[in-house]
Amino acid sequence: MTPLLHDIAGHSIRELGQQFGTPFYAYDAATIAERIAELAAFDVVRYAQKACSNLAILDLVRRHGAMVDAVSAGEIHRAMAAGFQPGFHDPPEIVFTADLFDRETLDRVVELEVPVNCGSPDMIDQYGERAPGHSKPLPITLRINPGFGHGHSQKVNTGGEQSKHGIWHEQVNDCIERAAKHNLTISGLHMHIGSGSDLEHLSQVCTAMEQTAMAIGASLTSISTGGGLPTPYRNEDQRIDIQPFFDLWDATRRRLEAAFGHPVSLEVEPGRYLSAESGYLISEVRAVKRMGSNLYYLVDAGFNNLARPVMYGAYHPMAVCPAKGETDRSLQEVIVGGPLCESGDIFTQTEGGVVSSQTLPEAQVGDYVVIGCAGAYGFAMSSNYNSKPMCAEVLLDGDTAHLIREHQTMEDLIRGETIPHLTRRTDEATDEA
User: What is the pLDDT of residues 359-374, one digit of tens each?
Assistant: First the structure.
């Protein structure tokens, strides 16, 4: 993004702000479609919907040929509402991936016959005990922790001893025995070591995948690369070349096919890669103030809307859209913060909470600050902290801006809450004391 921005995907930011009210998320449908198309060499593109799970986004992904991953009963429900069908299809449209079953989710995957990607040995036993009675072994896949990980932050590193994710690589034989005990067949393997991994680390994953696959044997019919494809957030970030990434995994797949004597499907599981660059968080500047040597733009969006900076120290590109359409503004170093009663409510910070700044055009109250690359783990991680309503979401599809989620109302904030009838009033109890 350039520091001064007037439109997104051909839509005027000012007009969007006036129509939908700030803060709100806007997603460019064409960007998501382009990212899916870039992965066409893989047999299955399976969207990790935790990145951005609005029904309209899931429907868009489905219409462009991708399948979906679910990590909760709620995400299974969302996937079905968006048109994905449960069941043991080839390939399955919905796969449940997790490190445990809560009781509700176990009930749902058994009832709906949603294929399971097990991230703990206990899941194999719990599933096997609940899903008997089939004439042939039910398929499961295993998510393996290869013993190492990588990521742009320790909080997104999903491999190694410090990660809770996956089945430890030394427990594979135990899992084979558990599966056989419950008449389950291990039909697939999944490995994911973290977000933002490079080709060197991915090559190590391929080696670990091949070794584990050979230990399991010819029951395997699919392998999954997991996700973690890097996304460029800064101008200097290099976009990943998909072809070398695919070639690494395809070579692994072909060696397994030769060893097993049958085809092996190759899946990729992008989340952030599909949705991050499509999304923008649009906020209005509500205060401009100087604190010593620091200049602050305070906007009406906070970490209740976008938590990545406060959680990971994540960088997001930002731009200013003038409310009156000016095209010439001088640049200055600015700290951008939100409305929350919380010192950490700063969008320009690095890991560890160190306050930083960005070079942005001069702005005044009423202008818009646009936060880019916000389509992944943006709205999906939002909250009602400080009793702030969740914001709207808008899908930009060609010439049309679709409202795909309304702003929460004040009534929405307290829906489901009750004040119980107490047997004794608090003030009466205090008087007696």
Answer: 999 999 999 999 999 9
